[in-house]
Design goal:
Layout (H helix, E strand, L loop, with lengths): L15 H13 L3 H8 L3 H11 L15 H12 L5 H4 L7 H18 L2 H28 L5 H14 L4
């Protein structure tokens, strides 16, 4: 007396009526495991048929088609009510470099939230460039002032005073 292993189910063809019932169960939210147990087949068979015929379960939002990236971008812009590049567009011609940098950062964040990653990347690079320019201009100002900051000047004066020398 030999018994078939418990994990094997014999191959069985299902008629169109059974497939229609399985589809209705799957679309209404039943799991493939539950359907397979009821109809005597394996889960993989259910998943393969569902993928081939495009069945979507109710809990996977079968009623609504998936949102396209363009629609998601438009919806995010409508929710925010303000164009993401508004901080940069609001800059005046004589704006300070640090103000422009902060506007570029705010624009980058707004575009990332809105889903416009390509333009966000461009504004992020612009903000990074302005930061480097700000640092370079700051270093240039320090060099024109003798290359020392006020803190360095105070430290040098304190050292010279301890040594008894005049600066």
């Amino acid at each position: 007396m030999t018994e078939a292993p418990l994990n094997r189910r014999p191959h069985r063809r299902h008629n169109p009526d059974e497939w229609a019932e399985m589809r209705a169960l799957y679309v209404s939210g039943a799991t493939a495991k539950c359907i397979a147990a009821e109809y005597g087949c394996c889960e993989r068979k259910i998943y393969a048929r569902a993928g081939k015929e495009g069945w979507l379960r109710r809990d996977l939002k079968a009623e609504k088609p998936p949102m396209t990236p363009e629609a998601a971008d438009a919806k995010a812009r409508a929710i925010s009510g303000v164009e993401a590049d508004a901080p940069v567009r609001a800059l005046k011609a004589d704006a300070d470099l640090s103000v422009a940098m902060r506007a570029a950062v705010r624009t980058t964040v707004g575009m990332l939230r809105g889903g416009d990653t390509t333009r966000a990347y461009a504004y992020g690079r612009l903000a990074a460039l302005m930061l480097r320019l700000d640092r370079a201009l700051g270093d240039e100002a320090e060099a024109s002032a003798g290359g020392r900051t006020p803190q360095q000047e105070a430290a040098l004066a304190a050292i010279l005073a301890r040594l008894g020398a005049e600066g």
